[in-house]
Amino acid sequence: MLTVLGYLVLVGMAACWVLCYRRPGFALGLVMVLYTAKQLQMSYMGVFLEHSAWFNYLVFFGVCLAVVASMSRHRTMWFGAWNRVLALTLFMYLFALFAMLYSPSREYAMDRAKDGAPYWLMEAVLLPLVFVELRDVQKFCMPFLVVASAVVLLFLTNPHTTFYAGRLTLQMGFFRGVADYRGNPLATAQLGGYLAIVAALMLPMRATWVANMMRLGAVFLGLGIAISAGSRGQLILAVLVIVLFWPLARSVRNPKQFFVNSFGFGMFAVVAFFALRFFITQNVEQDARWNPQRQLETIGHRAWEAWRLIDAWLEQPLKWPFGLGTNAYSFISGEPHSYAHNVFIELLGELGLLGFACGVVLVVWIIRDGRLFWHTHRHDPPARATATVLLALAAYNLLLAMKQGTFVGPPDAWYVALIISKLVARDQALVAHGWVDETRVPLVDDSAAIAEAYTRHEAAG
Question: For the whole model, what pTM was predicted?
Fold first, then answer.
């Protein structure tokens, strides 16, 4: 039976490829479900457990199809592709690779960089190319709800899904020398956060009762899987992001809009409450894991782990400018492939004042692009909600990076922000070329005008 489900997942992946070609923006959704869907496939078919990278290749192919589709339809796809946020991000990445030369744990740093490099290519370089206008993001939302909800349901009903130390995880058998190898609950909970955020903040292109019921169901499933996985940070940050970004997603211009928005927010709050009550009492250890005292102990332990890196950096003033070297934390902790679980602490301790300063500048630029992106689309309700979804996902990833992030691994903290910066830079580039007037930004429905301007530009040489 599980093998049959594995073949169905492969069929579903083929359908996702078609969707990536027809709606290139869905490539973002494919990247977001990658880690959890990969765990499912590894539990369904042993060949994917033995060759875990194969599923990554399937997703990578989907992203490449989306890039090709976007390139064939938009001759100005490259506009904004090279922007200051991408340039600084890649500079930091190259600096981290250089910092391996003086790292006390060079071998482990190289292993981490080797594992993360394909993700950097897919998420930081290729994925932003897919997005040309906000409409690409609008077309991503509803298919993502369908696919992500299906992945969560398959996870919850998988016979190999069991609780371990208060976390709902997938048992996969013998792998990499471990007799009882299990999936990563952080990745599963992160997908749950993505699902809840998109469902709560989006506005469907057709606001039918079916679409709204799907959104409520997606919030229930998303928060439910985050609770079951025992990843407190993912759940708390997802709820926090929804609350903070809800006012940005919905405009209030009259009393009617106020009451409609208040009712909508109340409905999602009720669903979130029922998800908490339903999923948090499934296991005794899981219930204890959500004890506030236990959470404070975890926060204290994480803070102590991070301070070990900073303390070692402070003891060597000559290392202050350029840091101790990439993945130096492994040497300090004595545990192979360990890291500080906070990307900014890691930047300061391992890449020094230069790396940390670059990280601060990068965040400032991301915030500025995000504000401009939202202001550009704030007057149109569907566009406003869609822009807010992207901003909320970027904020969620950045906050998670301060809980579990490492820089040279997959660029989870940055890839959504890079999409926003690309869209902002493209609008600015089109205005700078004089192809559209500044008053015609946002360019949500301006593809024909841009194509005409591009043709005139080509004819003029």
Answer: 0.91
